[in-house]
Design a protein that fits this description.
The protein is built from 18 helices and 24 strands. The chain crosses the membrane at residues 7-25.
Length: 556
């Protein structure tokens, strides 16, 4: 009998081990090339891009529960995904229409001039999948699948990517595809996602033919890691150990620009420069998705606390307002939507402090009653960055000196037009403001972004420790006002408000208009003196060849 038992164990034990391995570590089968996938043989999908399937998506599951794969890798990533939020009302409205008429809504909302807008598609898809996890609405997943299939067909046109900004393809699109791979349920769509990520990012540090570093390395590497982790093929990390070490160092928050050096990157005092622009949008966009994936690989994510610390230092405890331009090129002065989308689990721990960032020239003053930000001009750091849609806001980026009051926070607009910016305190426009004045800020044909620099003459910013005083001296030339026009600004901010001395030497050939009064200042006291004469309306004109000194204040 013992001999028989021994024989049975020899036969049965390997079978049990194989069964356990299959059950707990089931791997996806690496798909065949997409052109061999019979699921893509739909004639509507094979024809011209904007002739995608016209029939509505049918047989949607009504259950609110989300199917979870038994695959251990998928389950690990599924559990690590923390970006779960309710779909914004506008997106919900679109989803209702899209599920009935997918082709019509797709072409209406996501195609311009026959070219699909990958940024809008990817952003909407990411929002849908995040809401799908939270709400369990299978329609959101089905719409995302339709978006991915249509994009996959469109990307067969090799010229499409060249018509998009690289970020929209290499970052937003791959993020969407990676998210679907571990949240979605359709294997055909997962195969599309896997193949597309590898075509865009064939190696974890190379995307669209360019070797990425710093924050860009994070953006392209994490989707690559996701898809290769699911397909059990992470050899690329071992083939380029130095680059992977750089990735880990950056995500740990210790990859900072060395003292005395200049260039792009994170500085010890937490300034962040990206492509010569002082901005925090690249860090804020490096949200919980990326850090969650890193945690599943048991890697350090010290940068997460650095970013949260920056948010706490910039934000007021009771308001969502931020400096214009610090979180992106759009003329938006709040960050609530960005935080909800990228950092839904961020808990604000902001304090009422004064803080300066010497490298970027940024300063913030936060009191119980208001928040105030400004950035003085710095050498080798752009004064303004524009794109094809946002190119009219340079004066607002450089000059707006607005006190955002807690008591009036619901009365401020969160997105500003060019006209509204011209009425903000500190901003200088031409008296005969013309549309074509701003054409110079448009990127050249074939470009997506354009940076604009000032000539810095004096640049100082500081604070007086416990005295709660923020002060600055900002003297510069900016070509928008002519090559020889000099703007010389000195100011102080305290708990009582704002005091500014502004001298404008106008050599533009036209009359300049300086706005000093905030019409939405509530019960604060406004005073303005121009060359010894009181000015009550807060609008000062500076004639060509004139030098005008303006002293103004907004105080309690």
């Amino acid at each position: 009998i013992p001999k028989m038992l021994s024989t049975l164990l020899v036969i049965i034990l390997p079978l049990l081990i194989l069964a356990a391995i299959y059950y707990y570590y089931q791997l996806f089968e690496i798909p065949s090339p997409e052109d061999d996938d019979s699921a893509l043989d739909d004639p509507n999908l094979r024809t011209k891009f904007n002739r995608a399937p016209t029939s509505a998506i049918k047989d949607l599951p009504k259950s609110k529960s989300i199917p979870k794969s038994m695959d251990s890798r998928t389950r690990i990533l599924f559990n690590a995904y923390t970006l779960k939020f309710e779909l914004p009302q506008e997106d919900k409205k679109l989803s209702v229409a899209y599920i009935v008429k997918p082709e019509e809504e797709f072409n209406k909302n996501f195609v311009t001039g026959g070219v699909p807008k990958i940024e809008a598609i990817a952003t909407y898809g990411i929002n849908l999948m995040s809401s799908y996890v939270k709400e369990g609405n299978a329609e959101y997943r089905k719409i995302t699948e339709d978006l991915i299939k249509r994009l996959d067909v469109a990307l067969k046109d090799d010229t499409l990517i060249a018509k998009q900004h690289w970020y929209n393809v290499a970052v937003l699109l791959t993020r969407l595809l990676a998210i679907y791979e571990f949240l979605g349920t359709e294997e055909t769509i997962k195969n599309i996602c896997h193949q597309r990520i590898l075509k865009i990012t064939p190696k974890f540090n190379i995307s669209l033919g360019t070797t990425r570093k710093g924050v860009e390395l994070v953006w392209v590497a994490v989707p690559w890691i996701v898809t290769n982790y699911l397909y059990n093929n992470l050899s690329g990390l071992h083939e380029t150990p130095d680059e992977f070490r750089d990735l880990k160092k950056f995500m740990n928050g210790v990859d900072v620009v060395r003292r005395g050096e200049t260039g792009d990157g994170l500085y010890q005092e937490c300034s962040f420069i990206y492509k010569q622009v002082a901005t925090y949008w690249p860090l804020v966009e490096t949200g919980e998705f990326y850090f969650g994936i890193f945690r599943t690989r048991e890697l350090d994510v010290g940068l997460e606390n650095v970013i949260k610390g920056i948010l706490n230092q910039v934000l007021h405890p009771n308001m969502d307002f931020v400096p214009l331009g610090l979180f992106g090129r759009a003329p938006k002065v709040t960050c609530d939507e960005t935080l909800a989308r990228q950092w839904p689990n961020y808990t604000r721990e902001a304090e009422l402090k004064i803080r300066i960032w010497p490298i970027s020239g940024l300063g913030v003053f936060k009191s119980e009653r208001f928040a105030f930000w400004l950035r003085v001009q710095r050498n080798n750091i752009a004064a303004y960055e524009s794109d094809l849609e946002n190119f009219e806001y340079a004066p607002g980026w450089i000059q707006m000196r607005k006190l955002y009051q807690v008591a009036r926070k619901d009365k401020y607009k969160t997105t500003l037009t060019r006209k509204e910016l011209s009425d903000q305190p500190g901003v200088i426009y031409y008296a005969d403001d013309k549309d074509d004045d701003f054409e110079r800020f448009k990127p050249a044909k074939g470009d997506f972004i354009k940076t604009h620099f000032s000539t810095v003459l004096e640049s100082h910013i500081g604070h007086l420790g416990n005295a709660r005083v923020l002060y600055w001296w900002n003297k510069y030339k900016f070509d928008f006002y002519g090559r020889d026009t000099v703007i010389d600004e000195r100011g102080v901010c305290t708990d009582n408000g704002l005091v500014v001395r502004l001298e404008v030497s106008n050599q533009s050939g036209r009359t300049l208009r300086v706005r000093t009064k905030d019409e939405n200042s509530g019960d604060m006291i406004f005073k303005c003196n121009v060359g010894g004469v009181e000015n009550y309306d807060g609008i000062v004109t500076v004639n060509d060849k004139a030098v005008t000194v303006i002293d103004w204040r907004q105080v309690y």
